[in-house]
Amino acid sequence: MQPFALQVESLTKTFGAVRAVDGISFSVRRGSVTALLGGNGAGKTTTLSMLLGLLIPSSGSIRVLGEDMVRHRYRVLPRLNFSSPYVDLPHRLTVRENLTVYGHLYGVPDLRGRIAELTAELDLGEFVDRAAGKLSAGQKTRAALAKAMLNRPELLLLDEPTASLDPDTADWVRRYFQDYSSRTGATIVLASHNMTEVERLCDHVLIMKQGRIVDAGGPAALIERYGRATMEEVFLDIARDRQKPSEAAQ
Amino acid sequence: MTSFSLRRVGAMVLRHLYILRGSWPRVLEMAYWPAVNMVVWGFTSQFFTSHSSWLAQAAGILIGAVILWDVMFRGNLGVSLAFLEEMWSRNLGHLSVSPLRPHELVASMLVMSLIRTVIGVLPAALLAIPLYHFSLFELGLPLIGFWVNLMVTGWAIGLGVSALVLRFGLGAESLAWVLVFAVAPVAGIYYPISTLPAWLQPVAWALPPAHVFEGMRSVMLGHGFDAGLMASAAALNLVYVGAAAALFLRTHHVARQRGLLLNIGE
After folding, report:
1. Number of neighbours of residue B228 by Cβ within 10 angstroms
2. Measured between beta carbons, which residues in chain A are less than 8 angstroms from residue B3?
3. With an 8 Å Cβ cutoff, is B14 touching chain A?
4. Structural domains for chain A
5. With contacts defined as CB-CB under 8 Å, which chain A residues touch B89?
6. Would you place residue B2 in the very low, low, confident or very high pLDDT band (cuts 50, 70, 90)?
7. Is B91 part of the contact surface with chain A (CB cutoff 8 Å)?
8. Among A82, A88, A90, whose Cβ lies nearest the Cβ of B97?
9. Which residues lie below 8 Å from residue B199, measured CB to CB, with a gap of 6+?
10. How confident is the model at residue B260 (pLDDT cuts 50, 70, 90)?
11. Rg (alpha carbons) of chain A, rounded to whole number
12. H/E run at residue A14
C-alpha cells in the first residue's frame, strides 16, 4: 500500500492573470490529519477543489490514493468524500432521503443498515425525517457529516468544518473526526481558519499565502520554531510577514 | 467502476421523485397548464370548426396541435428544471465530487423529463376525450413517433438552456421558460409551413417540429402517415440532441476549469 494518501507536485491554478495556486508540492501520509491554513485568498479552497477534482489544474499533478486525479478521478471518487458548510444538501429532501440518494450514488452496500448506523452514531434520530432546509446550523452539519461518512471514506476532505457552529457543536464535530481517523485509519485534510481546531486536531499543517506553501510542520514544531505560544500567533507572524526568531537573529 | 451506471441514474431520478412525492401542488401544477391550454384551444377550435371549411375537415386539429406542443414544452422544462433544481439547492458541488458522471446526470435529466411530460400532458389528452370528443390516441402508432420526436426536441432545448445556466449562472434561468417559444412561430403548430413567407420556410424545415406538425396534419386530414416527414424529424433530432448534449458536457468541463461548480446557487 502507498504510504501517502495524497501526493501533489508543482500544482498551479491560474484564473486569467491571477495565480491562485502557485506551484505547490506536498504529500499527506495515510491516516494523518492535515490542515491547509491561510488567510482569505491564500489558495486553500482552490487547492481543496483541485484535490476533489472539482477544478482542473492549470499544471502539475495530483495523486489521490495512488490514482492520477486529473486522468482517473472516477476510480478514486467512490473512496473519498467531502463536506463543506458552503455546499448544501438538497433542502426539499429529508435527511433520510438525501442519505438514500447519496448512498445509491456511492453504491453503499446494505444502505438501510448504514443509514441506521449513522443515525445512531451522529444522533440524527430527532430530525432524520425532517427536510434538510429546515434544520438548524448544527443539525445541518451533522446531516452533511452523515452524507460524508456514508461510503466510509479513506480520504475525507473538509472545508472549514466547524464554521458557523457554536463551541459545543464544534467541539463535538472535532471529537468525531479524531475518533473516525483513529478508528479507521482514514486520512483527513481540512481547510480552516480556526487555529484551536488545527492545534487540537492536526498532525501536520501546511501554511499557505498568496498561492504558495510558505511553511509546513506539526503544530507543536511550528509553535516552537516561531517562538510563540499558540498557532494563532504563528499564523499572525506569517500573515504579517514577521520573521522567525531564527531568521531575525541572522 | 463502470462508465455508465443505471444505479446512479436511478439515484438521481429518485432524488427528483422524492421532491414530487413531497409536494402534490407541484404535480398538480405540471398537469394544470396543459389542461387549461387544451380547454381554451378546444373552445377556439369548436368556434373555428363551424366557421372554417379547412378546420371542419378535422375538428381536433388545433387540440391535437396544442397537446403535442405541450409535449415539446414539457420535455424542455423537464430537463432544465431537473438541472435548475441542483443549482437552486446548491447541490452541484456534492454531485460533482460523487461518482456520478456528467453523462449519467444528463441521462437522469432526460428520464425525469419523460416522467414530467407524461404527468403534465396525459391528463390534458384524456380530458379532451369527454370535453371535445377528440382523442389524440386515435392518431394510432404515429402518435408515438410524434410524441418522441417533440420530446427529444424539448430535450435538446432543455440541455442547451442547462448549459447556458451552468456557464452564466442563475441569471439565465428564465430561458428555461422562454427559449422554447422562439421555435413556436416556425414550428407550424397551428398552420401549415406553406403559410410562412418563402424565405422563412427553409428555417422551419431545418427544425424537427415543422416535420412533426405537418405529419400530424397529414394524418388528421386523412392524407395518411408520411414516413418521410417522420424520418427527417428523427434525423434532425439526432443532430440537435447530440449537439446539445455535447454542448452541456463541454460546458461542464469548462465549469471545472473555471471553478464554477462550487460557487453556484441561490
Report:
1. 10
2. 74
3. yes
4. 4-87+154-248 (3.40.50.300)
5. 88-92
6. low
7. yes
8. A82
9. none
10. confident
11. 19
12. strand A4-15
State the virtual CA torsion across B37, B41, B44, B46 in degrees, nearest 10: -130
State the ipTM, two decimals. Answer: 0.88
Chain A, 66 to 125: residues with Cβ < 8 Å from chain B are 74-75, 77-78, 80-82, 84, 86-94, 97, 100-102, 104-107
In this complex, the residue of B11, B262, B265 whose CB is nearest that of residue A105 is B11
- Of the pLDDT bands very low, low, confident and very high (cuts 50, 70, 90), residue B222 is confident
Please give the average per-residue pLDDT across A35-58, as a whole number.
92
- What ranges make up the beta strands (E) of A30-144? 33-37, 59-64, 67-68, 80-83
Average of per-residue pLDDT across B225-243: 96
Inter-chain residue contact A106 with B22, CB threshold 8 Å? no
> How far is B95 from chain A, CA to nearest CA, in Å?
9
Q: Give the C-alpha separation, A100 to A112, whole Å.
A: 8
Tell me what pLDDT residue B55 has.
64
**Structural domain spans, chain B:** 6-47+56-258
Q: Is A201 helix (H, G, I), strand (E, B) or coil?
A: helix
Q: What is the pLDDT of residue A40?
A: 85
pTM score, whole prediction: 0.90
Long-range contacts of B205-211 (CB under 8 A, 24+ apart): B206/B236, B207/B153, B207/B183, B207/B236, B208/B149, B208/B150, B208/B152, B208/B153, B208/B232, B208/B233, B208/B234, B208/B236, B208/B237, B208/B240, B209/B72, B209/B149, B209/B150, B209/B153, B209/B183, B209/B233, B210/B186, B211/B149, B211/B236
- The mean of the pLDDT values for chain A is 91
The reply to whether residue B90 touches residue A87, judged by beta carbons under 8 angstroms, is yes
Q: Answer whether B8 touches A (CB < 8 Å).
A: yes
CA distance B41 to B46: 8
Determine the Cα–Cα distance for residues B57 and B265; give it in Å rounded to an integer. Answer: 52
- Our CA angle for A103, A106, A109, nearest 5°, is 65
pLDDT in tens, B105-144: 999 999 999 999 999 999 999 999 999 888 989 888 899 9
In this predicted structure, what is the pLDDT of residue B261?
A: 80
Provide the percentage of residues in chain A whose pLDDT is more than 70. Answer: 96
**CB spacing of A86 vs B15 below 8 angstroms:** no
Whose grid coordinates read 420530446?
B151
Closest partner residue to A106 among B98, B101, B257, by Cβ?
Answer: B98
Identify whether the C-beta of residue A173 lies closer than 8 Å to the C-beta of residue A160: no
C-alpha span between A136 and A132 (Å, rounded): 9
